[in-house]
Amino acid sequence: MSVLARVFESAGLTTVAIALVREHAERVRPPRALWVPFYFGYALGKPDDPDFQHLVISAAMEMVQAEEGPVLVDYPEEAGPIGLPQASEASTAENGKPAKPLDAAGEITALRGYYERWQEQRGHTAVGITGIPQRRFRGIIRFLEAYAASDAADMDERPADVSVPQFARYCADDLKAFCYEARMAQRPNDSEPDIHRWFWGETAVGTLIDSITQRLNATGDPQLQATAYGLSR
C-alpha cells in the first residue's frame, strides 16, 4: 500500500496510507502514512465498532492537510480486544507444555503446497516484505533460530539500512503470512480466530517466533520490546 501511495501521488492524486507495519512505512516513505497498532487485517481496529473506526479514518484524513512529505504519524490508541489470541495466549497440552512440532523448517516445507495453491487461487500474497523467495524460507528459519539465542545472528540478505531486529520482524511477518495463507488454503472453512489459535498454539513456526518475543522482552530495552510486540501479534 505504501508503494502504491507513492505511485498514485506521482500521478497527481493525494494519498494517505494506513500502515500496520511501521518499519515498512519508514523504509518505503509514502507521502502520508498513519501507523496503527492493531492486529494484521484490522486496519481500522475492532470490527463492529464504527465510532472507533471513524476516529481512525478522521485521523488519516487530517493528514491530507500536510503539503509536503513524507509524513508518518502514530495513532495514539490501541483498538482494544479483538478476540484473536496472541503468542502468550496459545493453547497448551494437558501437561502444560505446548503441543507443537519441533521442526519449523520441515513445517514450512510441508505447508508449501498449500501456500502455492493459495497463490494460484488468489493471484496475490502478503508474503514478500523480506524480498526472499518462499522456497528459500528454510534460510529464514535458520536465521531466526540463531536470533532466538543471540543478538549476534545475521543473514546475508539483510539490507544494510535495516537493523537486525527490524529484519527479524520482516522475516517473522513473511513466515506468518506464508503460514496463514497456507492454512486458509488447507482449511478454507476455518475462522480467523481458529487460524490464530492454530498458528500460535500448534505450529513450530509460532513457537520459534514466540521464543524471540520472550528473549527481546527480557532485555528491558524499549526498542527491542516494541519489536517483540510486533512479532507476537
Q: State mean pLDDT (0 to 100 scale).
A: 84
User: How many whole angstroms does the radius of gyration measure?
Assistant: 18 Å
Query: In one word, what is the shape?
Result: globular
Strand order within the widest sheet? 1-2-3
- Spans of at least 5 consecutive residues whose pLDDT stays below 50 are 83-99
- The sequence of SSEs as H and E is HEHEHEHHHHHH
Determine the fraction of residues in helical runs and give it as a percent range: 40-55%
Structural class: mainly alpha
Number of strand elements: 3
Provide a count of the helices.
9
Beta-strand residue fraction: under 5%
Our measurement of the CA-to-CA distance between the termini, rounded to an integer number of angstroms, reads: 20 Å
Which helices and strands, and how do they pair?
Layout: H1 2-10, E1 17-19, H2 22-28, E2 32-35, H3 50-62, E3 71-74, H4 104-122, H5 137-149, H6 164-186, H7 192-202, H8 204-218, H9 222-231
Parallel strand pairs: 1-2, 2-3
